[in-house]
Specification:
By secondary structure, this protein is α+β, with helices and mostly antiparallel strands. The protein has helices at about 100-105, 120-135, 140-160, 170-185, 190-200, 200-215, 215-235, 240-245, 250-265, 265-280; strands at about 5-10, 20-30, 35-40, 45-50, 50-55, 60-65, 70, 80, 90-95, 115.
Length: about 280
């Protein structure tokens, strides 16, 4: 039996908005190796390279083998574990971003059917996921390259997915709301503005966001603004007030409180810490 191993990488920041790699790796599991039950705060695809394992989510349980890929949704309790006699080896990539829900739907994944079986393209899928790991790194350039490889991997899933009729569902409403938020987050927009643009009530919008991305539209908007603020704090010399205004906060005090809740430190401390880290890395 091949020696067990695990190789993984976790990105220090999720800086890109449309799609951003959170973690990536591959593992040859020991018999019975288990993760969960638990939840993730991001999407996570595992592709089975060899062996057998089991995936449980909600009331459903799946037996998976080489050629299968399964998707874990954010904030959804799940468990997966290796077979005792033939433990699986898999590659995985975790990611987040506004493009993720619509791409995954087009790739043939859904909450009702969170796995794909594609023996014909198994080696190609594994190769694409391993290429994300090969370009891993903590710099912004590494983030861009990992995300580019992720798009390529997801495109392969999309090309081999069974065709599905488009439906005017919560997924469509949520994606339309995300598009509005991405275009207008730098202005002091409200969730009522988003709901009005989508053409549904605020409560309906809330339910659609929870179903599609696992969080409320308010949380989605705030997290996007904070991510954009992190980029500006790290890469520019703008004042905290200027950055607050640039990402849609009409009060620098409220921005500082929201930032501290999200990052555990003030915006000025974050900027100082990241710029010192970048200066140290350039000096290596």
């Amino acid at each position: 039996m091949a020696e067990n191993f695990k190789n993984s990488f976790k990105a220090p920041d999720k800086e890109l908005v449309s799609l951003s790699v959170y973690n990536v790796g591959y593992q040859k599991c020991t018999p019975g190796y288990q993760w969960g039950p638990g939840i993730r705060d991001h999407f996570l695809i595992h592709h089975v390279i060899s062996g057998t394992g089991y995936y449980q989510t909600g009331q459903a349980s799946y037996t998976l083998q080489a050629g299968d890929s399964f998707l874990i949704y954010p904030n959804t309790e799940s468990t997966y574990f290796a077979d005792q006699q033939d433990p699986w080896e898999y590659a995985w990539v975790g990611f987040t971003g506004s493009d993720a829900p619509s791409i995954l739907q087009s790739a043939g994944f859904s909450r009702e059917h969170p796995f794909r079986r594609d023996n014909a393209h198994s080696s190609a899928i594994a190769r694409q996921l391993l290429q994300i790991y090969e370009v891993r790194g903590s710099s912004f350039a590494h983030s861009v390259e990992m995300t580019g490889r992720l798009y390529t991997a997801l495109a392969l899933f999309m090309k081999t997915a069974p065709s599905q009729p488009r439906k005017d569902t919560c997924q469509t409403y949520a994606q339309k709301g995300i598009e509005y938020i991405l275009a207008n987050y730098s202005y002091p927009i409200t969730i009522e503005d988003v709901a009005s643009y989508v053409g549904i009530s605020r409560s309906h919008l809330f339910r659609c966001f929870q179903a599609a991305v696992g969080k409320s539209p308010k949380d989605y908007l705030t997290e996007l603004r904070i991510r954009q603020a992190c980029i500006l704090l790290k890469q520019s010399d703008l004042s905290v007030t200027a950055i607050a205004n640039s990402v849609g906060f009409d009060s620098s005090l409220y921005f500082s409180k929201a930032f501290h809740r999200a990052k555990g430190m003030s915006p000025s401390s974050y900027a100082k810490d990241r710029k010192e880290t970048n200066s140290y890395e350039r000096g290596k």
